[in-house]
Specification:
253 residues; globular; Rossmann fold; binds nicotinamide-adenine-dinucleotide; alpha/beta
Length: 253
C-alpha cells in the first residue's frame, strides 16, 4: 500500500546514493515528498535521476557530512530549491576493516567519529532551524544494533553509533516541545553495499550473519527505510527520543 502522505513536504536524506538511504529517498518520493539526496558519492545523482524519471521531485547535493561547511551548503540547496524542510534522515555511514583497539589506526577511528557522530551533529545543527521555520517535523538519525551493544573489531563504528543515540535523546529533549520529533533507528544487518563488500572478503560471514539474526535472514534495505519513514509520519506522533530497534531480533538475544 502506498499513500501520498508526504505530499507538499520536503525530506533530506544523507547517504542517499546507496543502500538504506537510497531506499528511504525512493520511499519518501513515492509517498509524495520532494527529496534532497545528500552523498559524498556521485551515485546520489543517479538515484535522484531515477526518482525524477519515476515522476518524483528530487535533487542531489554532493557533500561530505563530516564537513560542516558542506552540510550547510547541502541544506541550503535543498531549502533553496524546494522552499522548506520538514524531515531529515541522517543516514550516511561507512564500514572499515576490523581492528582491535590496540591496533586501530587513528585515522580509521577519526573518520568513523567524524562521519557517523559529528556528521549527524552537523546535519541536525543546520536542519533544525529550517524544520522549525516549516512549523515542525521529524528527524531520524541512523544508529545501529552496534549503538546498543559492543562489536569486536569495530570500536570507532560502535562508539559513533552509541554516541548518535545519546545525541538523539538530547536533541529530542531540546526540540520535542517545539514540534520536532527526533528519534534514532537501530538497524540489524541489511543487504547493502557496506555489507556486500565485507561478505565478499569473508564469504563464511554470509551464513554467520543469518545465524546472528533470530528471524533467520538479514534485512532488505527497504525494510529499514520503512521504519525510518514511519518515524516521520503522524502515526508515530508520540514517539520522541527513542532508539527504535529494527534488527530481526539481533539485540534481543
Ligand atoms: N547495512 C547494514 O547492515 C547496517 C546495519 C546497521 C546500521 N547501518 C547504518 O545504516 C546507514 C546506511 O548504511 P548502508 O548499509 O545503506 O550503507 P551503504 O554503504 O550502502 O550506503 C552508505 C552511503 O553513505 C555515503 N557516505 C559515506 N560517507 C559519507 C560522508 N562522509 N558524507 C556523505 N555521504 C557519505 C556513501 O557514499 C553511501 O552512498 C549507515 O549509517 C550504517 O552505519 C547499516
Amino acid at each position: 500500500m502506498t499513500t501520498r502522505e508526504f505530499e507538499g513536504r520536503v525530506a533530506l536524506v544523507t547517504g542517499a546514493g546507496s543502500g538504506i538511504g537510497a531506499a528511504a529517498a525512493r520511499l519518501f518520493a513515492e509517498r509524495g515528498a520532494k527529496v534532497a539526496l545528500v552523498d559524498l558519492d556521485e551515485a546520489g545523482e543517479a538515484v535522484a535521476a531515477s526518482i525524477r524519471k519515476a515522476g518524483g521531485e528530487a535533487l542531489f547535493a554532493r557533500a561530505d557530512v563530516a564537513v560542516d561547511e558542506q552540510v550547510v551548503a547541502a541544506v541550503t540547496a535543498a531549502v533553496g530549491e524546494f522552499g522548506r524542510l520538514d524531515y531529515a534522515y541522517n543516514n550516511a555511514g561507512l564500514s572499515a576493516p576490523p581492528a582491535h583497539v590496540g591496533d586501530m589506526p587513528v585515522a580509521q577511528w577519526r573518520r568513523a567519529i567524524d562521519v557517523m557522530l559529528s556528521g549527524v551533529f552537523y546535519c541536525m545543527r543546520h536542519e533544525i532551524p529550517r524544520i522549525l521555520e516549516s512549523g515542525g517535523g521529524a528527524i531520524v538519525n541512523c544508529a545501529s544494533g552496534a549503538g546498543l551493544i559492543g562489536f569486536p573489531g569495530q570500536a570507532g563504528y560502535v562508539a559513533a553509533k552509541h554516541g548518535v543515540i545519546g545525541l538523539t535523546k538530547t536533541a529530542a529533549l531540546e526540540y520535542g516541545v517545539q514540534g520536532i520529533r527526533i528519534n534514532a533507528i537501530c538497524p540489524g544487518t541489511a543487504r547493502t553495499a557496506m555489507v556486500e563488500s565485507v561478505v565478499k572478503e569473508t564469504p563464511e560471514l554470509d551464513a554467520e550473519l543469518r545465524r546472528l539474526h533470530p528471524i533467520g535472514r538479514i534485512a532488505e534495505p527497504a525494510e529499514i527505510a520503512e521504519a525510518a519513514l514511519w518515524l516521520c509520519t503522524e502515526r508515530s506522533s508520540f514517539v520522541l527520543g527513542s532508539a527504535l530497534v529494527v534488527d530481526g531480533g539481533y539485540v534481543a538475544q
